[in-house]
Design a protein that fits this description.
The chain has 4 domains: 187 residues, Sandwich (Immunoglobulin-like); 101 residues, Neutral Protease, domain 2, CATH 1.10.390; 155 residues, Neutral Protease Domain 2 (Neutral Protease, domain 2, Orthogonal Bundle); 79 residues, Pdz3 Domain (Roll). 28% of the residues lie in helices and 25% in strands. The chain contains 15 helices and 28 strands. Helix 5 crosses helix 6, helix 6 packs across helix 9 and helix 9 packs across helix 15.
Length: 593
């Protein structure tokens, strides 16, 4: 980011020369905002009013460097144009550029200041339609240094027939005015203006709003009634995990745009979710369901259950934590749990295990697997040097492995759900968040199991995840194959019959492998076992059953695996105790306490 608009020594002198803000009973009591949308949908006219002021020499205005939930630096200042600051008499005050996102305003003798700027925005509606614009708070609203703890108010000035939606609370005393107790809450309420569709439902005595905007699908492409019901079921399944709704009302903001795939960002009482409109219009809704479950679970995990660094926020610096694997990755685990328990995935265990195995395969082919620990990948996300592995994927795997082990060590009486419930009450938002080691301590407090070795090896450390050892406790068989491993290299179906000719060995389609080096084989697991101790390039003798010819022998050269694979399947020989663990994950049993 470019910061060379003023020599650094001059900036330092300007800031050092001014006295600290003079806070008196007659000074600022709130920061008042007005957002006026241009009819074109291309820009907002923004106005921030600071009054009354008392004996202030200067005011520092800043554009946030990042937005919570997105752990990287952003250049929000590029969309801020024509900043002008005037006093109570309408006289323009000098606003000295300190860097590309900071201004120092001369406030000597001013009893009030008004900062105005034009904000360039993106209209995501169809061409020719009424515009639709979504804005997250940090990319929209500047802040005056030292005012973050003051109440903030917001008024809208919109063209005729435009609507607006957000999680903002109505002001208790003023009409058409929205109120937040401080800047953190203020910018944690994203805003949508323009042409909107609104729906609502009530769940556990809390009102929910579902808002659609942008390049919206037709009713035939996306049934509104069916979609709102799915959102309700997702919300209800998440409530079952944690057991309370920590808000007065909740707002889902669904934007259908040209984005590639889908994206969401969590907030205290709302979420913004963007999804590719073409995919939705083509019937691909699974991804939208998944991101919806993910962002709603963040209502607790991140927004309430959070490290100390994640609130109150420092918008002028990077905010690092080693716990993003839990914040984002365990949330990814729960978005699959929620979809399963909400009844939105008909194939039950097979779908759920396939999703966890797919995540594991992604990890196996990541360059950082076994090199960059979940704690380290969480910490280094700010460095911008390119991630070698995703803490989302690492945390999702850890969520599954922790859930199974907690259930195993408590005879399936305690679960990861209980840990989440405990953390939700222990952290006690908005008080200080989690400290290093608290996640491990929470697991031990709930389960009585000492997870220190597991955390040392697989959270702080780089040891490969123990899928086979742990998932066996839930009656799940694991097939893990790594690049470089020896494998038979034949295209076989479930009956071990060849699905293609192998002319080099005179093997034919339909030949059924029955022996490998005098070892009888009946299924793919036995084939895997028969080749486990062989080296790539070794020659084995195959015996195959050939229709019309009986048993035929053929030499075969063992291949070297050029890609990793991971597969989870239900063990038909699992005990009742093991089966109960997997069933408990899928159904939410036992209920959290």
């Amino acid at each position: 980011m470019r910061r060379i608009l003023l020599p650094s020594l001059l900036v330092g002198a300007l800031l050092a020369a001014a006295p600290a803000f003079a806070q008196t009973p007659f000074d600022l009591t709130e920061v008042a905002w007005t957002l006026e949308a241009e009819p074109s949908g291309e820009a907002f006219q923004m106005e921030m009013r600071l009054a009354p002021l008392h004996q202030r020499e200067r005011v520092i205005l800043r554009v946030p460097l990042w937005k919570p939930g997105s752990y990287n630096f952003a250049n929000f200042q590029r969309m801020v144009r024509d900043l002008v600051v005037t006093d109570q008499s309408g006289v323009e005050r000098t606003a000295t550029v300190c860097d590309d996102r900071t201004w120092q305003v001369d406030a000597r003798g001013a009893t009030a200041l008004t900062a105005r700027y034009r904000l360039i925005v993106d209209n995501v509606a169809d061409a020719g339609a009424t515009p639709a614009v979504m804005r997250n708070g940090p990319e929209t609203f500047l802040y005056a240094e030292g005012t973050q703890e003051l109440p903030h108010t917001l008024e809208f000035k919109l063209p005729k027939d435009w609507d607006h939606a957000s999680g903002h609370r109505p002001h208790p005393l003023r009409t058409a005015t929205w109120y937040s107790p401080n800047y953190d809450v203020f910018v944690d309420c994203p805003i949508v203006v323009g042409e909107l569709e609104r729906f609502s439902f009530e769940l556990h005595e809390r009102p929910f709003e579902v808002v659609l905007y942008g390049k919206r699908p037709t009713e035939a492409q996306l049934s509104r009634e069916a979609w709102v019901e799915k959102v309700r079921r997702i919300s209800d399944a998440a409530w079952d995990v944690v057991g309370d709704f920590p808000f007065e009302r909740y707002v889902y903001l669904f934007g259908f745009t040209d984005i590639g795939g889908g994206y969401g960002l969590e907030h205290l009482n709302s979420t913004t979710i963007e999804f590719n409109h073409g995919a939705i219009k083509g019937g691909a809704i699974d991804g939208l369901e998944s991101v919806t479950a993910h962002e709603f679970f963040h209502l607790w995990n991140v927004k309430r259950i959070r490290p100390e660094a994640l609130g109150p926020f420092d918008y002028a610096s990077d905010v690092r934590t080693t716990d993003l694997w839990w914040m984002e990755g365990v949330t990814s685990y729960y978005n699959d749990v929620i979809l399963q328990r909400a009844g939105l995935r008909a194939d039950r265990a097979h779908w759920f295990l396939d999703e966890q195995a797919r995540n594991g395969r992604t990890l196996l082919v990541s360059q950082g697997y076994g090199k960059l620990s979940p704690e380290r990948s969480s910490w280094t996300i700010w460095d911008g040097s390119g991630r070698q592995i995703s803490y989302y994927d690492q945390g999702q795997a850890l969520g599954l492995l922790l859930d199974v082990q907690i259930r195993h060590h408590t005879d399936n009486r305690r679960t990861l759900d209980d840990v989440v419930r405990f953390l939700n009450r222990w952290v006690d938002y908005p008080d200080a968040g989690l400290r290093p080691g608290d996640l491990e301590r929470a697991v031990r407090s709930i389960s009585g199991w000492d997870p220190s070795e597991f955390f040392e090896r697989h959270v702080a450390g780089n040891r490969p995840f123990p899928y086979s050892e742990v998932l066996a406790l839930a009656g799940v068989k694991v097939l893990e194959q790594r690049v470089g491993d020896a494998f038979l290299g034949l295209a076989l179906d479930e009956e071990l019959a060849l699905t293609r000719d192998e002319p080099s060995a005179e093997l034919r389609i339909g030949d059924k492998v029955v022996r490998i080096n005098n070892l009888g084989v009946r299924n793919t697991d036995e084939v895997q076992a028969a080749t486990a101790d062989l080296a790539p390039g070794a020659t084995v003798e195959l015996v195959v059953e050939r229709r019309g010819a009986g048993r035929v022998k053929a030499p075969w050269t063992v291949k070297e695996r050029d890609r990793s694979n991971l597969r989870f399947t239900i063990d038909p020989n699992a005990t009742a105790e093991q089966t109960a663990i997997l069933e408990g994950i899928l159904t939410g049993a036992p209920r959290g306490v």
